[in-house]
Amino acid sequence: MLLIALLFSSAALPQTSVTLTAQDSKCIASGNSANWNDNRYRAYWYDPGQGFVDGFAKFNLSSIPTGATITGMTLRAFHEAGFGNPYNNPEVRVYRSANDAWSRSQNDLYPGVNESLTGLTTTFPANDLVPVDFLLNVNAVNWSTDLADDKLTLVLRNEAGSASRYSYVYFYGSDAAPAPPQLIVEYTSGPTLQIFNLVGGSPATFQVTNATGGGQVGVALSRQGGGPTNLLAGPCGVMSMKLTPPLIVVGIGAASGAGTKSFSLNVPVGASGAAIWSQGLDFSSCTATNGVNQIIG
């Protein structure tokens, strides 16, 4: 119990850039919740009854540490040629949606939009597969919720529409081919967790990097799902972690001067095929690592 409770200036932090591929996409009308479940990421206006037919794309943020500071984001969408688009001078703005519960396999109510992340984009290519980059204002959002639940929904909206103005531009959706939307994220981060050789009957290595040099770090895992759950993190107080009790403490110890610490755990032979969720904590900065969800080999 004591170990479990324990689990739970400054030099410039390293900056990392990662390119994420959309995991899901669809279009939903704001006026009547009509669902367009094809492989298109639209910014479309048809009539006042439908209102905005907005394109929704969902990204998995689990590779980014929970405590990361987002310093830059670019949404890259690939134009789909045809249907005369871009048609009638679309004016596109990107929004964040706080509702990530939608799916292309469902018939969803309109999820809504929240913060505006760009100004209006009014110039679009005519040729197929040409990328369009939307530079997002990262200061418009507190990203902690999205980093905690590992999901981010970005919405394309065509704001040129009116009762007499039919306007649209098409991009490809999240199918693997021909070109799903991408999200390029730049961030500074503290500790990062990686797992090596997670195989039944073998010792696995849980490695924390970018922690406070010489400081105490710990790693725990759970079998019950990946939170987020508010857990008592010893001297760090209550923290939102991507773990769900009961927890298994992999280890607690001092990092090297470079901020690296590895822990070894013998994986039972019969555990192959089971899922685990794991996360580390830098006690010096009270910063959690990214959460790792992995299947035991």
How would you explain this protein's 3D organization?
The chain has 297 residues and is mainly β. The chain has helices at 2-7, 144-149, and strands at residues 15-21, 24-29, 35-36, 40-45, 52-60, 69-78, 92-97, 131-136, 151-158, 167-172, 182-188, 192-196, 203-209, 216-222, 229-232, 238-241, 247-254, 261-266, 275-282, 287-288, 292-295. The strands form five sheets. Strands 2, 3, 4, 5, 7, 9 and 10 form a seven-stranded antiparallel β-sheet that branches. Strands 14, 17, 19, 20 and 21 form a five-stranded antiparallel β-sheet that branches. Strand 4 and strand 5 (52-60) form a beta hairpin. The radius of gyration is 22 Å and the shape is elongated.
Overall mean pLDDT? 89
Range of helix content: under 10%
Structural class: mainly beta
Q: Biggest β-sheet: count, sense, barrel?
A: 7 strands, antiparallel
The total of helices stands at: 2
Amount of beta strand:
35-45%
Q: Low-confidence spans: pLDDT under 50, at least 5 residues? A: 1-12
Cα-to-Cα separation, first versus last residue? 29 Å
String of helices and strands: HEEEEEEEEHEEEEEEEEEEEEE
The radius of gyration over CA amounts to: 22 Å
For the secondary structure, the number of strands is 21
- Shape annotation: elongated
